[in-house]
Amino acid sequence: MNISILVFGKNNFIATLLDQIRDMADFNIEVIDNFNQVVSWIEITPPDIILVQASLDGSMELCGWLKDQTKLSCIHCILFDDRPGQLNDRNMYSWQRELEMSAAALEQGADAYIWHIIEERTDHSLAELTANNSLILAQLIVGLRKAQKYRDLIRANDVLSAIAFADSLTELNNRRALEWDLPRQIQRAKIQKTSLSLIFLDIDHFKKVNDTHGHVVGDRLLQMFCKRLQKNLRCQDTAFRYGGDEFVLLLGNTTNDEALVVASRLNRIISDEPFVLSNKLAINITISLGAACLSDQDDHQGESLLHRADQYLLQAKTAGRNQIIGSNYLSRVPHLKAISY
Fold it and tell me: Is residue 286 a contact partner of residue 324, using CB atoms and an 8 Å limit?
């Protein structure tokens, strides 16, 4: 496991840290001594462990800032107190003073508080230096364990998300995935001022397949249909199974006219070749499609965009199926029956 360590401190501070930190091959260490730069670095590339030099301006602010960032709570923050005044106070007062300082540091946002004792200081015993080094290594181990647990959690969440957002039969994204992704694509399109289109489609007379051949054949036909559909989508297109034999396609960076071209091509690709389920059974199907493009009046959740495409699909089905309807557009494909065997 490649562990990233971010040091908020001066170069001479990192030089005083243990050889086990500086020389460990699995550690990717970055040193920054500017508060604004370190915050930017954390936001872009969150490290696993942060070592903070207490005497550096902004050190306590950094600990407090990290504490307030919910998404960065996995980062293990170790505050090294190298301030001479605090070290002298530690010698002058009892262990109660040391506990008070530790408690204050933890309240400010640090996960661990360590007195930064280095070998060059002769007023500390060898036993104290050894104990201090052991404490540093122990806190690094805690950080490593925390980072590993976080990685395991992310992997588990990815698996659960894939399961939650996938349709088990067709392996397409499901309706829940659409409800999650559509607002984000709309937001991106509006921010970047790019076009976004949506196609609502369903298989014509699909119920007849189930009624004639049974649901096993119907399920197999759906699987083959989705594979053909996916194979002929563009890289910016995302397919979702909305329910039953209804599907939604999100077409990124696609204008209304371009969406109609995509719809026409898919209509032809689906209807041109039968779906061969066995040596004795091949089924021709057609699809009806409604295409709509995002407008300035559409809501951020995508309900109006989805509704408009759904209404166009309903018009296509009412008008006889096997056709595409969009804004001021109707495309009929009369050479095939709606469904044949």
Answer: no
Q: 6 with 42: CB under 8 angstroms?
A: yes
Residue 146 is predicted with a pLDDT of: 83
Q: How far apart are CA 213 and CA 18, in angstroms?
A: 73
Cα angle 227, 230, 234 (rounded to 5 degrees) comes to 160
Q: Could you report the average pLDDT of every consecutive run of 10 residues in the chain (341 residues)? A: 83 70 65 92 91 90 89 87 66 67 84 74 58 76 82 77 86 94 95 96 96 96 96 94 96 95 96 95 97 95 96 95 82 39 33
Distance set, CA 202 to CA 225, 242, 248 (Å): 11, 9, 9
Cα three-residue angle 286-291-294, rounded to 5 degrees: 160
Q: In 10 A of CB 31, how many CB atoms? A: 17
> What is the distance between the alpha carbons of residues 265 and 192, in angstroms, rounded to a whole number?
27
Q: How far apart are CA 232 and CA 266, in angstroms?
A: 7
Neighbours of 220 (CB within 10 A): 19
Of 55, 57, 48, 56, the C-alpha closest to 30 is 48
Token representation of residue 36: 């604004």
Q: How far apart are CA 165 and CA 157, in angstroms?
A: 12
pLDDT at 95: 65
CA distances from 70 to 46, 49, 67, 183, 275 (A): 13, 16, 7, 23, 51
CA 84/CA 118 separation, integer angstroms: 12
Burial 104-114 (b: 16+ CB within 10 A, else e): ebbebbbbbbb
> Helix, strand, coil shares of the chain as percentages rounded to 5?
50, 20, 30
> If DSSP codes are grouped into helix, strand and coil, which group holds residue 210?
helix
Amino acid at residue number 135: L
Q: What is the pTM of this model?
A: 0.58
**Which letter does DSSP use for residue 237 in this model?**
E
Written in H, E and C, the secondary structure of 173-206 is ECHHHHHHHHHHHHHHHHHHCCCEEEEEEEECCH
